[in-house]
Design goal:
The protein is mostly helical. The protein has one domain (about 5-85, about 105-330, about 345-455). The chain is built from 22 helices and two strands. It has helices at about 1-25, 30-55, 65-80, 105-120, 130-145, 170-180, 185-200, 200-210, 215-225, 230-235, 240-260, 265-275, 280-300, 305-330, 340, 345-350, 355-365, 370, 375-385, 390-415, 420-430, 435-445; strands at about 30, 90. The protein has a two-stranded parallel ribbon with strand order 1-2. α11 packs antiparallel against α20 and α17 crosses α20 (about 390-415). Mean pLDDT is about 90; it is low at about 450-460.
């Protein structure tokens, strides 16, 4: 019964996402991958925020809260169906191109990888230390106490393990599963983690299909699904792959906005950036980087639409995450507190440590047993498809990737921990966040190697 309840909870997440997609893209025709990838991703981020806002009001996650969300979702779907505004599935034989039949090979590889991840997640309880001591612990607190009641856990460091100021996306999504099941069940609850983590694969595929044919996009997605680092972190109950999944959505739609200036793309860029900021502390920095790039390219273009889009991005991001920023402001900053250190003069005095940090990062990306040939492949694609650098959206993504890596290098420079111990321990986890950008760049450069690999840019995949 607990497993069934958890599955119904995931179905609710999917329906919430489908409803929002229908609002953003009314009456549009979408591919199956869009509906099973983009829809649940939007639904997950929205569900996490809804449960957070409800808790602030005084309602901890419960079956009653989930039922209210479900009733409102179904009512919205019925109204949109009556007005013929629901997104529809697009299946056209004419979409298939020569050679696409070979897609069955990377598809089988991808499904095998995802099946192994799901099996591994459900066959064990919380065994990852951070999942047990931070994310899972917070989920249990949120299950029993609403934030309006100010749980002592969040203000008394003696009652917590660490990182009281970590955002609450993962804990609330897990707490929602506990509420649906009617009990705290760590092992069954990991189904939520596995489901959300593997969404990074269809999300990345969507970004690749924007510019690539079906077969090469599927091959790159299969490479992602079979990365050793995926098996290390997917479904363990941590926030890293969920952050990477939301980040994939944010940078994809930032790139699409820069390329096409369509408001639907900007709305999705705002949504995913807000989700990123509510998932981990570094997500706030990544969301602001997205906005900075939108603003920078808007200033360069000189078009009024781009300026308005940049202003809308920052206002939308602030509106969605304002409640968290206000509520978390008084939380104790335990352990590293990188935010304040990066904004202080301590940063300048620690810059010489970059001589040790940057080579260590370069060594890490060459680790075959962690990344396979991902980073090397991306570099080769970038060289062969160098013409892609003339595309503003590709240049924007390179800038975002550079800023992303720089932000982590600077964080390492001010850490109070011994770098020789810290970097081997968490470097793969941090670089995992950059994987969507790396694969997008590999695919978009590949698309510039010859017209045979291009697809119509107006197609929505």
């Amino acid at each position: 019964m607990a497993l069934l309840a958890c599955c119904l909870y995931l179905l609710l997440i999917v329906l919430v996402g489908y409803t929002l997609l229908s609002v953003i893209h009314p009456s549009s025709r979408m591919t199956i991958v869009q509906l099973i990838g983009l829809g649940p991703a939007v639904g997950a981020g929205t569900m996490g925020l809804l449960l957070f806002w409800a808790s602030l009001i005084g309602f901890a996650p419960s079956r009653k809260v989930l039922a209210i969300i479900g009733v409102l979702t179904l009512a919205s779907l019925l109204v949109m169906k009556k007005k013929n505004r629901l997104a529809q599935i697009k299946i056209l034989a004419t979409d298939w191109e020569k050679g696409d039949g070979w897609i069955v090979v990377p598809l089988v590889v991808t499904l095998a990888g995802l099946a192994m991840i799901a099996t591994g997640a459900l066959s064990s309880p919380l065994v990852e230390w951070d999942a047990f001591a931070i994310w899972g612990f917070k989920a249990k607190v949120l299950t029993y106490e609403a934030l309006r009641l100010t749980p002592a856990y969040f203000h008394d460091p003696t009652l917590s393990y660490s990182h009281l100021d970590y955002p609450l996306m993962v804990p609330f999504l897990t707490s929602g599963a506990y509420a649906a099941m009617g009990t705290v069940d760590d092992q069954t609850g990991k189904l939520v983690s596995a489901f959300l983590d593997v969404l990074i694969v269809p999300m990345v595929y969507l970004g690749l299909r924007w510019k690539l044919r079906r077969l090469p996009a599927a091959c790159l997605s299969a490479i992602l699904a079979m990365l050793p680092v995926m098996f290390r972190y997917a479904g363990v109950g941590c926030a890293d792959l969920l952050l990477a999944m939301f980040y994939a959505g944010s940078i994809l739609y930032v790139a699409r906005w820069i390329d096409r200036q369509q408001w639907q793309d900007l709305i999705l860029a705002i949504l995913f950036s807000a989700f990123v900021a509510f998932t981990k502390n570094e997500g706030t920095v990544l969301a602001l980087m997205n906005g900075a790039v939108i603003l920078g390219f808007g200033l360069c273009s000189g078009r009024r639409r781009d300026w308005v889009g940049a202003a809308a991005f920052f206002m939308g991001l602030l509106a969605m995450d304002a409640a968290w920023l206000i509520w978390s402001r008084s939380l104790p900053r335990t352990h590293e507190d990188y935010g304040s250190k990066l904004l202080s003069s301590a940063l300048v005095t620690h810059l010489p440590r970059l001589k040790e940090i940057i080579p260590a990062m370069l060594v890490q990306i060459a680790e075959f047993n962690v990344w396979g040939l991902l980073w090397i492949m991306a570099g080769v694609m970038a060289l062969l498809g160098w013409r892609a650098l003339t595309r503003p959206y590709v240049l924007a993504l390179w800038i975002l990737l550079g800023l992303h890596l720089l932000s982590y290098a600077l964080a390492f420079s001010v850490t109070p921990w011994d770098l020789t111990l810290l970097m081997p321990m968490i470097m793969d986890r941090l670089l995992l966040h950059t994987v969507p950008a790396v694969i997008f760049l590999a695919g978009w450069h590949w698309a510039e190697m010859g017209t045979g690999w291009r697809i119509a840019e107006s197609a929505l995949r």
